[in-house]
Amino acid sequence: MDQQVVDLILLDINLPDENGLMLTRALRERFTVGIILVTGRCDQIDRIVGLEMGADDYVTKPLELRELVVRVKNLLWRIDLAKPSQTQVVSQDNCYQFAGYCLNVSMHTLEFKHQAIKLTRAEYEMLVAFVTNPRRF
Fold first, then answer.
1. Are 128 and 107 in contact (CB under 8 A)?
2. Mean pLDDT in residue range 106-116
3. For a Cys staple, 20 with which of 13, 43, 76, 130, CB 3.0–4.6 Å?
4. How far apart are alpha carbons 47 and 57 in whole angstroms?
5. Which of 41, 67, 70, 37 has the alpha carbon at shortest distance from 54?
6. What is the pLDDT of residue 92?
7. Domain boundaries defined on the chain
8. 59 and 71 in contact (C-beta within 8 Å)?
């Protein structure tokens, strides 16, 4: 994990050579990564301890694959929301830059790779709301 970016870990508590709960705690202390514990332990105390050790979610076996996929997608979505916004303000032009676009709020223009894009007033106002309030809509 020091060499490769990892967004999410599915971890079984009952590992053959290591305590999965202690590994969860160690991962949480060192990395900002989503952790879903997948285990056969279904007692309430096991779930509570797993979450207290730093897991973001806890699912028990046998599990429904579709449920696990939804839990993974939801956790990845929350992780993405917590990341710093990719929108940045370039102060000299009063321009918000994102994904190849430049929204110039002083000139009321939008460009994509230096090509002007026509916007209605409503589209422009919505875009300004989005870029000035990243990850809130």
1. no
2. 90
3. 13
4. 9
5. 37
6. 52
7. 8-82, 88-132
8. yes
| DSSP letter string, 41-109 | ---HHHHHHHHHTT-SEEEESS--HHHHHHHHHHHHHHHHHHSPPS-EEETTTTEEEETTEEEETTTTE
Q: How far apart are CA 24 and CA 41, in angstroms?
A: 15
Q: Which residues contact 8 (CB under 8 A, 6 or more apart)?
A: 33, 34, 35, 36, 72, 75, 76, 79
Q: Model pTM? A: 0.61
Three-class SS state of 3:
coil
For 61-96, the pLDDT digits (tens) are 988 888 999 999 999 888 877 776 555 544 456 888
